[in-house]
Amino acid sequence: MKKVGLISDTHGTFSAEIRDFLSDVDVVLHCGDWGSIHTLEEVRAFKPVIGVYGNCDDQDIRMEVPWVQTFKLEDLDCLMIHIGGYPARYDYRALQQINQYKPDIFFCGHSHILRVMNDPHNFSKTEPERMMMTMNPGACGIMGFHNVRTALRFKVEGRQISDLELGQWPR
Question: Structural domains in the chain?
Answer without folding.
Answer: 2-170 (3.60.21.10)
